Amino acid sequence: MAATKMQGRGPPKGNIELFSPTYFAACALGGILSCGPTHTGKIPHILHHSFCHSPRSCQMSPIFAKEGLRGVFFGWAPTFVGYSCQGAGKYGFYEVFKYYYGEKLFPNANKTVVYLGASASAEFLADVALCPFEAVKVRMQTTLPPYANSLREGWTKVTAKEGLGGLYKGLYPLWGRQIPYTMVKFATFETTVNQIYKTLGKPKESYNALQQTGVSFLGGYIAGVGCAVISHPADVMVSKLNADRQPGESGGKAMSRIYGNIGFRGLWNGLPVRIAMIGTLTAFQWLIYDSFKVSLGLPTTGGH
Asked: Among 3, 138, 285, 297, which residue carries the largest CB count within 10 Å?
């Protein structure tokens, strides 16, 4: 699989060499821009979802009336920092692994297999960076009164009580949620974009930058629907684990106890809303990512 086939004819402008360290660093920066702000923007929905599953509260209005935007975006710091780190790893390492798997190690491999392997490898590493911040974020956003009022306070409380291991006790279920999610996100996106250009009947390079990023947005939304379905049960379990796992309780025992309380149907609570939210989120992430690449004179993702 030639690199030129995977990425097109090269950038129409700019001086960044494809597959150079600078290129991969640019992709990582694009990942930060696409993931950090978009996940932070989800916070009001997350708080509403969390509180509506709590008997203590089911309204965002009192929070806004009392605390304003600060209350509505409570937990923004661990969200922004965590998902920025994850975005850098997710997109940056995806481009690295896609290139090395598809060009260097397995040049004759099926493209979809390369996309799946590269995205799984990238997410495995990205989640190691995300996990500590996710642990603090979930505690802050799912408890009343709040577990902590800042990232620093939450981090200090967790490590003082449970050590560094407390920040990573949700890592395995996080992998279980995020790795399939990202495999679907990237493989479906690449396949969808390829199919869109085939349906249009002209090569990608014949369309301008605005049209190409429009294709990225549409491909991202379609990929997001699949992401929502594949990751939802694990997402519910991760949230429950971070909020309800007892000190010293093994992961397996905690998951068994939680599953016994909520059952199979409980793992799918809120799926329709998640589909709408994740579809839109994923579409905007790809739009931001590919728009950033275009601004640097790099080709958009997919369609080769």
From this structure: 285
